Amino acid sequence: MILASLLVVPSIWAAPLESPKLKGAITAAIVTELDGSVLFERFADTRVMPASNEKLFTCAFALAQRGKDYTSKTRIWRTDDSIQIVADGDPTLDSSKLAEVRTLLGKVSEAKVFLKQAYVQDRPDSWQLGDAPNRYAPAIHAFSVDKAGFEVWLGPEGVKFKPHEPEIKKIQFLDSSGSKSSVKFNPLASELTVLGPMPLVDTKVDTLSDPNPSETALKILTGSGTAKELKDVPTALNDITLSSPPISQLISDCLKPSDNCLAEHLLFIGSAKPTYSEAQKSISQWLIKSVGLEAWAFKVEDGSGLSRKNITTARSVSKLLAWAAKQPTFNLWQDSLAASGAGTLAKRLKGIDFKGKTGTLAMVSALSGYVKCTNGKTRIVSVILNQYGCSETDAREALDQFIENVAKK
After folding, report:
1. What secondary structure letter does DSSP report for 110?
2. What is the rounded radius of gyration, in angstroms, for the C-alpha atoms of the chain?
3. How confident is the model at residue 9 (pLDDT cuts 50, 70, 90)?
4. Residue 279 and residue 231 share a domain
5. DSSP-based three-state secondary structure for 318
6. Among 219, 243, 267, where does a domain finish?
7. Starting at the edge strand that comes first in sequence, how are the strands of the sheet with 191-195 ordered?
8. At 88, phi and psi to the nearest 5?
9. Are 255 and 55 in contact (CB under 8 A)?
10. What is the DSSP string of 334-372?
11. Lesser CB count within 10 Å: N end or C end of the chain?
């Protein structure tokens, strides 16, 4: 009787993954107990793209390496003729805070500005070119502002930017016909093109990535978008210190809404390495030595999962989640995840006690986390779909149904 029940339950769990709508797709899945004991697996060792499930690795890494209370600092020294800035990497600095600091600094127009950043990285080569203009694909500078993004507003007075004005070299207007206005943006050339008629009232039309986040931050703080490299950190006590929220808050703000900018910063904050190649090595070594992943079973390309060169297996994700469950920070970790009916799961899995991470790219859909079952047990689930031909909605419904079946059986 026991053997029969063990055979029946996995077949019920697997049913959504065997839908005709997923024909030809890669359907990798695994279910384990909280201690990692495997209850069900389906192509669990197949290498797949994780999309934003990659953020689970990044956030766990930053939390483990830095600790839950770690904060990044932006330190500023003001002398009679200079402003010196050392930025560890705070992705939460906003333009209003920098404007306040500018007031505290007094007259800044004639000051020489020096800047030392922990890292200055453009978008990884593996990010798709079409992603580059968007807020979700920013350049990652340790001294940055407004998460390296800005809003474009069009109206009767022309083009406006909020919450700050980025350094855009050229704005042009083309094709004022039609009924809808839009913009095209080339962040590499720093060119903005406005298409269609101008709205009669101020209207937000897009949210874009800043072409040079540190240049914009410098302009807000000092009035100049340029600075010389600060080679030697001053030994004197600095005049102003800006602190980021603790890692515990950053990972929650990253995972719940799936914020790519925060994820990329957390990769560098966790690794304390100034380049993507070195950060990739740092997190990979940690995943192998501390979490117990096998080197062949994953490849880290970035912190957010935006690159299609990120590779993992469903088993690797479940191993990470099982490892996290054994840490003293487990309660904090669970609370940082999106919950049913909230965050990126706002319209999903209602009535199911699930905390986890979603993931979406073109033809990629993933869902991994912890589900509390009707029998009172908490199980680890990871299910990742690649190369499906159905709609994104159908793919998500299959994932959700899989999680619901695990919760109820």
Report:
1. T
2. 23
3. low
4. no
5. helix
6. 243
7. 170-174, 191-195, 182-186
8. -75, -30
9. yes
10. HHHSEETTSGGGTTSSTTSEEEEEEEEETTEEEEEEEEE
11. N
Q: Tell the residue number behind the tokens 């800035």, with chain if given.
A: 85
Helices and strands counted in the chain (H then E): 10, 19
Tell me the pLDDT tens digit for each residue of 58-82.
999 999 999 999 999 999 999 989 9
Q: Which residue has the tokens 């560890």?
A: 88
Q: At residue 70, what is the residue type?
A: Y
**Residues written for the chain:** 409
Instruction: Read off the pLDDT band of 393 (50, 70, 90).
Output: very high
Cβ proximity of 345 and 366 under 8 Å: no
The domain spanning residue 384 has which CATH number? 3.40.710.10
Whether residues 130 and 173 fall in one domain:
yes
Give per-residue pLDDT as tens, 12-63: 899 999 999 999 999 999 999 999 999 999 999 999 999 999 999 999 999 9
Pairing of strands 26-33, 378-386: antiparallel
pTM over 0.85: yes
- Cβ of 272: how many Cβ atoms within 10 Å? 15
